[in-house]
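REQUEST ID: PR-0412
SUBMITTED BY: lab tech R.K.
PRIORITY: routine
TASK: structure prediction, single protein chain
INPUT:
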Amino acid sequence: MRIAICDDDTNMQQRLTDVIEDWAAARKVETAIFRYPSAEAFIAAWPEDVLFDLVFLDIQMKSMSGIELAHYIRKTDKNMMIVFVTSFSQYSLKGYDVNALHYLIKPLSPAKLLPIMDKAYTIWNSRREAMVVVSNENAQMKLLLLLRYPPRNAKHKIEAREKSANEEGLIKAIRKKQLDKREKINGDIVLG
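STATUS: complete
OUTPUT:
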């Protein structure tokens, strides 16, 4: 599970990291945690560095707020789980605008965070079996596949619901991607 923490408070970054690492060790979940001191640092690294499954966003940061960053993320990734972490409860309703998974009020405690991690893990685990990451030299895209069991010899379709700037290169990469070792994608690609 790839997790980003975007908070300008390094103590909060470390506290989140410690609780997440303890949670992952107890549940034997492999995680990779990336920490960013600002929304701008996150944007500079994402999505070139890694596609995240879960991101913790502080709402009050110096330049760009966590709410603004969440809107930026949603323009590209509708599936990344977002958890807001803040001292200000008055922003909680804004989390609904970006389909946030949860809204954590500081101070942070394991009792507050662990159920959120369990919920995020359940969602992530249900998605990962049906996810393909397709990339070329310029971009990466996560595709959630809805697998249906067609009759034998039926053509397979992959529906990409969002277009990207590098659509042609990604479509070529999708066509080459194997669904499993025995069967290559053999059908149409439909852009919705």
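NOTES: Residues 131-191 form one domain.
REVIEWED BY: pending
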